[in-house]
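The instructor's notes for this session suggest beginning with a concrete chain rather than abstract definitions. Hand out the sequence below and ask the class to guess, before any prediction is shown, which regions might be ordered.
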Amino acid sequence: MNIKVKELSNTQLPYHQCPEFIALIDAVKADLELRDANAEQPPTQIIQYIKTKKLGALRLPKQYGGQALSIEELFAVIIELGRADSDVAHIFHSHFQFTEEVLRHPDPTYREKWFERIASGKMVTNALAEPSSHNVGNGKLITHLLNKNGQLFLNGKKYFTTGTLHADYVLVWAQSHLDSLCHVVVPTNREGVEIFDDWLGIGQRNTASGTTLFNNVAIYEDEIRWPKQKGLVNKPFAQLYIQAIIAGQTKAVEDRTAVLLASRGRTFSYGNAEQARDEPLFLEKAGEISSISFIVENAVLRAARSLDRVIQHVDLPSYDVVLQQAAADTAKVKVAIDPLALKAANLMFEVIGASAMGRDTFNDRHWRNIRTLSTHNSVSLKAKVLGDILVNKKTVPNIGYF
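After discussion, reveal the predicted structure:
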């Protein structure tokens, strides 16, 4: 069964422009400023606040406590959240991916159980990647389920478990006791689950994207999911979500450029104006940044409409074709906007001046965050796949990175 989430009417104010959401964004910005003043502390308090505001339930039907947002509208929200604090937006990445899977789950009892949990503010993250020698995404896992006298136990080590430090549940990809792959959804406070905030990236520093250990964690049959349903839409969804955060950071670059250039006092004696804010060459760079921000944001929202279309076709013969197009659209967004976003972040340094280069300004944050987010997967490899589709009529690979 496919849960239908109705689209917003033309007369209804989009959620990302509603006073309630704007107030939440203001709280996120204020929290970031406070944490910056205290050695970039983790966003623990603001995440708990966001959970009380039920942001994670935005895609749920209204009768279950959600806002019934379309995917396009959700990504408009994520862009604004990423604009305010990209760490916070990233922490909710796998939660919204999980919610998409719940919306399309064929078992109404399963759906309603998770609708209730999500609507109450519960947060679900994931633990998929492992520190191993296997190629990323090939499905060879060390984390496994073991049957001991009829009781299942989970053992393994995961890395890049973004947001799990703040989550109530974690979805774990594992080798099952039946020698097949499965997902296990386990409470993060269960005995044997250990979460470490040991991520030391140059960007996205406070996403808690580090290690989670599972040491003889008791698992029950109703916590195991066998990935058989039509749900590949979650794969391009997860990829596009990262691009939405990048779009948010690009808008933050635009915002920061406007503030810093407008407030910059002196300029160079060999320039073309008395004040930096009137320097034609600086204004040209600022205009280029603004243009990039516009293109990046709208590219993400255009691909989000493709994901909405997939849901509309999920029970139709055209599903596979529409899904292929959405996956290709999402890949095109990454190939196009990653270098543009980095260019915008670089251009900002052309106009802000040496006085704005102090560590305590955090003006390098946006470049670091965009650079880190863009390494989630390869632009070059995705461009090659898109070229193969264009020239040789190949299809999008059926793997998690598309």
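Then share the key points. Residues 319-352 form the longest helix (34 residues). The two ends are 24 Å apart (CA to CA).
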